[in-house]
Amino acid sequence: MKKVGVAILGLGVVGGGTYKILTEKKEYFKTTQGLDVTVENVLEKNIDRATALGIDKSIVATNIEEVVSNSNVDIVIEVIGGVEPAKTFVMKALMSGKTVVTSNKELFAKHWSELEEEAKKMRVGLFFEASCVGGVPIIRTLQEGMQANKILSIKGIINGTTNYILTKMSLEGSSYEEALKEAQRLGYAEFNPTADVEGFDATYKLSILSSLAFNAKVDIENVYREGITSITKEDIACGKELGYTLKLLGIGKNSENGIEVRVHPTFIPNSNPLATVNDSFNAVHLVGDSVGEIMLYGRGAGALPTGSAIVSDVIFAAKHHEYYYAAFENSSKGNKSTKFVSDFVSQYFIRMTVKDEAGVLSKYSGIFAKYNVSIKEAKQIAGVEGKVSTIIITHACKESALRKAIEKIEELEIVYSVDSVIRLED
Amino acid sequence: MKKVGVAILGLGVVGGGTYKILTEKKEYFKTTQGLDVTVENVLEKNIDRATALGIDKSIVATNIEEVVSNSNVDIVIEVIGGVEPAKTFVMKALMSGKTVVTSNKELFAKHWSELEEEAKKMRVGLFFEASCVGGVPIIRTLQEGMQANKILSIKGIINGTTNYILTKMSLEGSSYEEALKEAQRLGYAEFNPTADVEGFDATYKLSILSSLAFNAKVDIENVYREGITSITKEDIACGKELGYTLKLLGIGKNSENGIEVRVHPTFIPNSNPLATVNDSFNAVHLVGDSVGEIMLYGRGAGALPTGSAIVSDVIFAAKHHEYYYAAFENSSKGNKSTKFVSDFVSQYFIRMTVKDEAGVLSKYSGIFAKYNVSIKEAKQIAGVEGKVSTIIITHACKESALRKAIEKIEELEIVYSVDSVIRLED
Prior knowledge:
The structure is a homodimer.
Chain A: E1 2-9, H1 13-24, H2 26-33, E2 35-43, H3 47-52, E3 60-61, H4 64-68, E4 75-78, H5 86-95, E5 99-102, H6 105-122, E6 126-127, H7 138-144, E7 151-157, H8 160-172, H9 176-185, H10 194-197, H11 200-214, E8 224-225, H12 233-241, E9 244-255, E10 258-269, E11 281-288, E12 292-299, H13 303-319, E13 345-355, H14 360-370, E14 375-381, E15 387-394, E16 397-398, H15 399-411, E17 415-424
Parallel strand pairs in A: 1-2, 1-4, 2-3, 4-5, 5-6, 8-10, 10-17
Antiparallel strand pairs in A: 7-9, 7-11, 9-10, 11-12, 13-15, 13-16, 13-17, 14-15
Helix pairs in contact in A: 1-13, 5-6, 6-11, 8-9, 14-15
């Protein structure tokens, strides 16, 4: 039976879950995979964490050199997170001829090319299923299940924290602040929630996923990013009334005009399969030119779901050793020649407060028309003291045109305020 | 660049789609996969089909010997369907050292072991992603994405024809006969719809999927099967009123008691993610002990979606040639020792017509109690001429107990008829 030695760098939530799966299922992997997988080393400064997991002190390394010079270690699992020291450790592992499995989206989104180059040079593997959408095998699907397709679009709920917050705001009418507090209480959001609520986490993931989907390196700088901090319960309630659900989506589109990648709050019709993906669940919807629509749904985070993805990579790497780096070698090709669309086309949901008098609609609709923004639906919502809330849904138009129109509309004497401009996808 | 020669046996809908993808994307596969894939042979008696696809006559073979003796052919794609002559052709291809990719669920469900044995002996590959759920990469997910999990359950809408019919009955209130006729008109159902509506097609697929999920060969004889032909629009309407949607589900469960596999019409709550999978779409919901819930959704049939799965297998086979048969070698293990649960536990939806008089509930509920069938909900629906329809939803109980109770209830003088007994899952 083939023996596989692994080392785990970092015994946080995901590292602990990974250790648990690898040790508790040692016999299971022998019978189902024909592999004898052993944790040969863990690297963790906090010895209590190791002890709490029942790890023998003899395998706890105190520095990375110990791990990369251990000839029993074939595969190094990096679950430290963040750029440093993770990057140094991963590079040392690759340079020592170890295959690397990582859950580190930030590291990967920022330094993919450098890591890939080293892995290729050393002819070792570099796997990152766990970096995107936790236990959902979206990377394996893109790499090993969708090869026959040119992927036309990818749309995903790829951050569980924001999905929890938006679900709570939608189903319980909570404010953003209330929902965030509850998410923090439950451990779904960090004390400093910026990475999640401002869309950075989703941007890392979308950068990785759209690179694979479109066979072109999509850097995080190419991704338009907008978080959910300015979303109000009024926005969500008004959208609901018109049959739309608000989600923080990662959207990638690949057309003749180029590649378009963006992370922002988005209204989608309730009939869209992504609309019913609630709480901390994640989902990714793909359209391929052969397969049509595909959606994958599951847990985007957590010790065991993310551990499931890491262990899947370990087994995949151990079984397909010929194939170590070929999985991603095409994704960094043609970076310089890739065209990106910045002035994208979208539908919009606009909420504004206007004077309650005759002729208001004709005034703002005249401005929209001037900028070629066509109105699909306009709805007035009862107001007070001579002010009314108005919701407008536009047909697809260029973002730049919409912004110019909004500027002019804000100058109108009959308009008190443009309260929200939120993109909308079918 | 690695050259890969393929032959296609059969140019029906799926064969045509496969040919189209392989030829139109020849250059795309060179750049994205580093593979030069060429269709070296097609086997098709109807020369018009070949001509319609623009296939040069020089590559149209007239018998299987021509194909299997062609040294340029590495991979044989079988898309004929049915057991013979497909089985003979596939065996000849394997015996000649060709890897086989097939979409043939019936052949695979009935003769897996024999085919597997030959593939192992010859050290060639046998791939069957396209046999289940069309373009949805469910087999790749089970094999290459869920290795860290013991799969606890699999529940799927794995037949598009019946899902189309049930969706039409549900959304438009059609009768079974009307919905079937419409499905036939649109090409979703065959002139003889038995294989679909009686659940045979779903049984083949569930046999394959649960074998992989549970690492134990599940033969079609192990699958309990019940079709949708006796479902009425009244059943669907009554279920709807209580918040349930009716689907033909393939259900596999793996517990300490053994493996339980069944295909039958099933009510599920509207909140279940499978409830919104409509028309001819398919979806498979898995629960793994590490990953938790996962769902995959997409097109279960059609020329290009199924072609997408076949071409994915071709590319996977060409890239992972070390790995040809290991993908399924564990699935036929331990067949004799596998325990199957036949007297399964389920919730039930019961619709019956009873006398409109006092004390009816106490009479039938007494019988249910006697057989340890506990009632979760009972609802009377307005009737005429002294008769009323009653809907009962039970808590989980053993099928045998439920059947005995129903027998006794049918004998009650106050019961005119037990109209439907339909299983219900949460």
